[in-house]
Design brief:
By secondary structure, the chain is an alpha/beta fold. It has helices at residues 37-47, 65-73, 84-94, 101-109, 111-114, 130-156, 162-167, 173-182, 185-191, 193-204, 210-227, 234-269, 283-293, 302-309, 333-346, 351-362, 368-389, and strands at residues 3-8, 15-20, 26-33, 54-58, 78-81, 313-318, 321-327. Strands 3-2-1-4-5 form a 5-stranded mixed beta sheet. A two-stranded antiparallel sheet has the order 6-7. Helix 6 (130-156) crosses helix 13 (283-293) and helix 8 (173-182) runs antiparallel to helix 12 (234-269). The longest helix is centred in the middle third of the chain and has 36 residues, at 234-269. This is IS110 family transposase. Pfam families: DEDD_Tnp_IS110 (PF01548), Transposase_20 (PF02371). InterPro entries: Transp_IS110-like_N, Transpos_IS110, Transposase_20.
Length: 402
């Protein structure tokens, strides 16, 4: 066993490092430095060891760990990332009532002696990987757009059900363009059917014509009769709806751009399209699974892949008793969400998954969500296996026939 450098990382303040020998005795501790090349070189000189004999142990503190880990990996050093809960428990063992950066770095430096089986070398760039980052960004924007759609639903309810009947609730490009300009019933009526039809033809690419314009004018007239000119300011309501519609238009454009980036990055990460070959996995979900799962070879086993997804149940054992609870949800939440969505579609395409779903629902009396979670672990295991072996997903019948 070589020497261990424990680093307590900070986002704005200085990092603190401590160096421990093979026996856990401290060589030095409390060295402060920032993520600057000059200071990292000075720290490297203070270590004064063969890089092959050094292990760097850190916690994943926001994104501050990424450049430090990359700098040490370029010098052939083994970098280990430790979950914050694990280091916190060890810190409490050392000193229950003390928490400081120097103690944290000492705990991390002595971790190979205290918990050697928990040290796994970290590979990959984490959030520095563009595919991993962009799929997270797309998910965040999509959820923001869904919140905007929900607010639009609530505001349009004030105008009456005729607006839903006329324009639907999918909020496409033509619907959002209409709401951004003409959510005031009086303005719609004043605009007239001919001009409104020209507007709709332009933004719907010819799908909406005079008939749709007549429906919207009828809905506007019904709104005026519903309120009978009392109790609501249509101009103010239209201004509020326009704000939400313009936000939705901007978010939709951003999602479209991100989808194009995801497609290009996914093609680089999985040129053979192995993840995409799985049933229920479309272009967006393939990018999410590939980006959030990362290199499948970094996992020691397929059980570790399932554990990383957080789709495995909690287990509590004591003596002869054993209890299982809900999902651990300890892994990547975006990966878990993507695999669940893929499994819900895959059960309609893969006969084996369909049969498994039927057994879970009939014999085990599972709830739909619980059954799909079970299928999601199977699907993720198969995807990881295919990716590790370089073979595309093969859909088979219940008897194993392709």
């Amino acid at each position: 066993m070589g020497m261990t450098l424990g680093i307590d990382l900070a986002c704005r303040a200085a990092h603190v490092a401590s160096l421990a020998g093979p026996d856990g005795r401290l060589v030095w501790r409390g060295r402060k430095f920032f993520s600057r090349t000059v200071e990292l070189e000075r720290l490297w000189a203070d270590i004064g060891r063969d890089p092959g004999e050094l292990t760097v142990v850190m916690e994943p503190t926001r994104n501050a760990w990424i450049p430090v880990a990359a700098w040490f990996r370029r010098r052939g050093v083994k970098v280990v990332m430790v979950p914050t809960t694990q280091s916190a428990d060890l810190r409490e063992y050392f000193s229950k009532h003390t928490k400081n950066d120097r103690l944290d770095s000492v705990v991390l430096a002595r971790l190979p002696l205290l918990h050697p089986e928990g040290l796994r070398e970290h590979v990959g760039d984490g959030p520095a990987d563009p595919l991993r980052r962009v799929v997270k960004q797309r998910s965040s924007i999509a959820k923001r757009r869904t919140a905007v759609f929900n607010r639009l639903d609530a505001q349009l309810e004030l105008l009456g059900p005729g607006w839903y009947d006329a324009q639907g609730t999918d909020y496409g490009k033509a619907t959002l363009a209409f709401l951004a300009r003409y959510a005031d019933p009086t303005v719609v009526i004043r605009l007239g059917q001919a001009r409104l039809a020209r507007f709709l033809r332009r933004y719907s690419r010819g799908h909406w014509r005079e008939g749709k314009a007549a429906e919207l004018i009828a809905a506007a007239q019904e709104s005026l009769r519903l309120w009978d000119g009392d109790g609501i300011d249509f101009a103010e309501l239209a201004a509020d709806i326009a704000v939400e519609a313009e936000q939705a238009i901007a978010l939709t454009a951003q999602i479209s751009d991100l989808d194009e980036r995801i497609a290009n990055l996914y093609a680089e990460a999985d040129p053979a399209g192995i993840v995409r070959s799985a049933p229920g996995v479309g272009p967006v979900l393939a990018g999410i699974i590939a980006g959030r799962l990362g290199d499948p070879h970094r996992f020691t086993s397929l059980a570790a892949v399932r554990s990383y997804s957080g789709l495995v149940p909690k287990v509590s054992q004591s003596g002869t008793s054993e209890r299982t609870g809900g999902l651990t949800k300890a892994g990547d939440p975006l990966l878990r969400e993507a695999v669940w969505m893929a499994a819900d579609q895959a059960r309609k395409l893969d006969p084996q998954l369909a049969a498994k779903y039927a057994r879970l629902m009939a014999a085990d009396h599972r709830h739909h969500d619980s059954a799909v979670c079970h299928l999601a672990t199977i699907l993720l295991t198969r995807i990881a296996t295919c990716w590790r072996t370089g073979q595309p997903y093969q859909i088979c019948d219940v008897d194993g026939t392709p």
